[in-house]
Structures are given as structure tokens and as C-alpha cells.
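PT: before anyone asks, these are the final sequences, not the draft ones from last week. 530 residues across everything. Please model them as a single complex and drop the result in this thread when it's through.
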Amino acid sequence: MNWISAQRISKLGLINFWRNRWLSLASTLVMTLTLLIISLFVILLIIIGAATDRIKAKMDITVYFKDSAQTEEISDLQQKLAARGDVKEVRYISKEEALIIWNERQKNQRIKELVTPEENPLPRSLAIKAIDPENLQNVADYLSGEDFSSIIHKISYEENKQIIDKLLAITSFVQKMGAVLSIIFIIISILVILNTIRLTIFTRKEEIEIMRLVGASDRFIRFPFIVEGILYGFLACLLALILMWLMLMFLSPLTTKYLGEAVTENMKHFFTSHLWLIFLLQLGVGILIGIGCSLFSIRKYLKI
Amino acid sequence: MIEIIGVSKTYGEKICALANISLKISKGEFVSIVGPSGAGKSTLVKLLICEEKPISGKILIAGRNIVGLEPQELPYFRRKIGVVFQDFKLLPQKTVYENVAFALEVCEASPEEIFEKVPRILDLVGMIKRKDNYPDELSGGEKQRVSIARALVHSPKILIADEPTGNLDPINAWEIIELLGRINRRGTIVILATHNKSIVDRLKRRVVLLKDGRMVSDKVRGGYVI
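LR: through. Structure below.
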């Protein structure tokens, strides 16, 4: 294709876009919606991923020792645990430290006063974190063995495990449902875009017919529609980006409230540091859908 | 120049639009194809411009069978024949000049070529003074002139007019026919499909009569007789 044809085709595409501005606007808005849904799904995945990581990071085993246990026995166990390949960290919590934690956590003053440095029933403990939280069960099994029953008062794992498993099941469910819903929405939006573009092309049936009759090549007929498809994609991408930014601003107080400052900061950081990537991805997807739908819709009118 | 050999066309299984038509048209001829509605005139026109393909037979134009043209060859074929329709088929949002120039633009003509050809053709059809008007601002006769100008812009050897006077009053209709006659005298084959009796009778040129998809008569200086 020569330069003059490229110029004419681009001009024709731009003029057509402007002349059918209401239909163009409809196509652009529907595509904006699609891009938003795809982007929001990705963000949802990131948030859920972050939440799962946070839950997993909190998973640990705390072993409470009997007051009769010797300090040497405890430090011996601590060393044995630290030497294990699947254990990330073993922290010893003395009676004094346990008291500090107690004072921090306990809100009720009367109960708080029941424990004093002089009369401290709080046990010594070891807080164990695994490299992979899934492996905590092995550590729990090891500790439940006969060897340590004389010094161990209680292992906290079992009671926490149920709650944690439930939380992980919920996040995994939300993740899967999100994926299914997003795919359904994406298919619906693509169908709507396809229909809208078909409508724009249908209104120009006569123009296409005239172009064919005066000897325009299929390429010349098709390209202005591709230009329009690119325009839909480009504008939709810009709009989706602006809407995402507004939503982020609007939603960040809520995420801070329910998921913590860190998640909000993570989201904002992710958005700003990946702005170009998001832009290019949305642009790519938008243009791809625009061109794909245009080519698909015009096919019918190019047949002889 | 044009040779139609044993051409038949059916739509579905029951409707036979054309049955075994054979016709030869030489260079410089003016042929009227007449017949009542449904006789097959428009089908013949569609076959000649490759809008549709016959189920059997050959259509030779300048020795080449156009029935076997590949889809990618069609645009180049269509640039060699001009077509005029009853409903003008002008783009309403383009001016007279732009409508004619558009036919050259889509064929990748240079701006110089467009600048040189369009005014000349508009002058030929008597529409140069109206070049900046939109189709809505023109009368039926004027619209048809623009449509003829557009058909002529590629300097075709063949001009096919399908009921070009169907939407026009008698005076305008005759003016269009005279214009077609003028174009024919410059050496272009003109094929006129019409059911306008007075025009055909007045023309006194070759008349091919179709009826129910069959060729009933072919007279060198004929009139409209059914």
C-alpha cells in the first residue's frame, strides 16, 4: 500500500468514526467496560493473593511449656527445631515477654491485673514459623511425639488450623468465582461490542456496496473499519485507565478499613509503578478486540 | 467485445431468472435490453458486472471469461466497466465533486490524476457548476448525471445502465438517454436495461427483448414490442 492510500484510509476511518459518533461512543463505552472488567479481575487476583499471603504469613505453631520444664530442655528443643529444613524461624518467648504481650492484648483492666510479674501463670513458649505454611503439620506431628510430652503443655496448631483452613478455602473460592464471573462478563462484553460494531457497519452497507461497485479493493474497504477498531481500543483504554484511577481513589478508604493500610498502599504502588504496563496491556487487548470485531463484522459485506 | 454464451441463472431450485442466453455485442454498440419486470434484465446486468455468477455458460469480455474471475481480480475488473443504477447510489454526505473523486481515490489514483479527471468528466455530463452541492440538493436528473460521471471516471470501455431513467420524469429521462448516446458516440459500448417503451422506440438502436428469462428477439433497429 502506498502512502497516499494509507493517508486516505486513515482519513476515511477518522471521518467515519466522527460521522457515526453516537454508535462509535457506544462501541467505545462497551469496550471500556470490558477493559475495566479485565483489569478489575487482575486487581482482584492481586488483592486476594496479598490477603492469602498475609494469612499464610500469620500461620505458626506456638508450643507452650510446662512450668516444670527445664530451660536446657527448651533450648535443646529450640535448636532441634531450628535445624529442621522446613522451619523458617523459632522464637523463644519467656514468661516476661509473655506478660508484655498479655498487657498489650488484654483490654479488660480487671483481668489484666490478675497477672503480675510476681504472680505470672503465663507459660514459656516457642513460636515456630515454617518456610511453607503447608508444612506446619509435619512440625506439629514431630512435637506431638512421645519425646516431648513431659515438657510440652499445649500445642496451639490444631485450634488455629481449622480457622486458617476455612479462610484459605474462602479466598480460593472467591478467586475461582472471580475467574468464572470475569470470563462470563468478558464473553458478554465481546458479544455486545461485536453487535455494536456490526450495527455501525450495517448502517454503512450502502457505502460499502458503492465502494465495491466503483472498484475499491477489499483491503481499501476493510482498512477504514480497522482504523475505527483501533480508535475504539485506544479511547476505551484511556477511559478505562481514568475510571480505574477514580475507583482506586474511591475504594482506597474501604480497603484500608477492611484489609489494612498495606493492601491499599500495595494497590496504589502497583497501579503507579505498572501504569505503562497496564496502559499497554489494555491498549493491546482493546485494539485486538476492536480490530477482531471489525474484521468479523465486515466479512459478510465483502462476499460477492 | 462482449460475448454471452449459453448463460443460465437460477435462484434456488424453482426460480429460473435466465435460461440459455447467448448474445454478442461489438465495440461501439448501443444495446437496449428490454422486457417486463421479472424478465431477467437486472439479473443479466448483475452477471455482466460480476455481482453474481451464472450456473452455466460463459461471459467473455475482451476475450476473457469473467465467470472464472478470482475475488481479488474483481476490483480491477470493475474499474474497466462503468455502472449506473436507477437509485443513483450516491454517497449523501459527499459533494458532487467528492462523489466522483471517491471512485478514483479508492482505486489509489494520484491527487494530480483526480484533479485533472474529475472536472473534465463533470463538464462532460454538464454538472461542473454544481460540483460543490450535495446529492440532496440535486434533482433526480442531476443525480443521475453525477452517477454517470462517476461511472465514466475510469474511462471504461463498457457502460452498463440498469433502469437509469426509472426515477426520472420524461424530459429528464430523455436528457439522460441523450447523454448516454453522446458517451456511446465517443466509442464506449452502452448497455441499457429498461422497460421504458417511449425511450426505446425513440432510440432506434439495437433492442434485445427478454421474457421470463428467455431471449425472445434481438433486432438491430428495434422498438419495444412484447
